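Run log, item B.
One chain of 263 residues. Sequence copied directly from the ordering sheet:
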Amino acid sequence: MYAFEWHRATSIADASAALARSGGRALAGGQSLIAAMRLRLAQPGTLVDLAGIAELRGIRTSTDGLTIGAMTRHADVAASADVKRTIPAVAALADGIGDAQIRNMGTIGGSIATNDPAADWPAAVLGLAATVTTNKRTIPADAFFTGLYETALAGDEIITEVAFRKPGRAAYVKFPNPASRFALVGVFVAQLGDGSVRVAVSGAGPCVFRSAPLEAALSKSFTQDAARQVKIASDGLNGDLHGSPEYRAHLVAVLAGRAVAAA
């Protein structure tokens, strides 16, 4: 680790001003950022700690869906009876993130702001056509994730909450790395209230993405067989010691089928 300044923000306005002034990074749960700093993959001069801002935490439900505060921890989402009742797939996804320590420290806002290509939350945000609210604006999911570890957020912009639409049915299935529990491939399938189908894929590419071939197939027939018959192109997919692009392409269709069955 190296020397850096630490600022404990007392409000959203204070945090935004500190980020604008310092050009530093917001610190949520720290499960991704601190690890990146230890490896010198990130070297912010200032960390603006959001832990003391109570208004960034909490879960609200309505007839249309649910809203989760950015600093709400994964474990709290997983244990919430309101989330389990409103969108069970979201509770199940949160319960499968990392290990107990990560679930009790990591936050939804920190996860989607980092936009790790193998993270789980981006798949739920994109798959459910969620809306990301910041201290400055509202960003639809389709415009939020822009590339490898990149989002539409400005340097002094802070996620305040994420609003999820209640789907007709939905599920998330992932093939986890046995050590990190990150998704080698993860697929979130949702059939929304208007009958449209969205399929979001994590882990397979540089950034979470929607699969148009799977969405087209499942719009015609929302069945496991329809998903598994789709041939996913491997062009542009990740390849590493855990799996080739072709292997990941195969997993996308297989896991989509399992998600449909679970939904």
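Observations after the first pass:
- The mean pLDDT is 95.
- The radius of gyration is 18 Å.
Flagged for discussion on Thursday.
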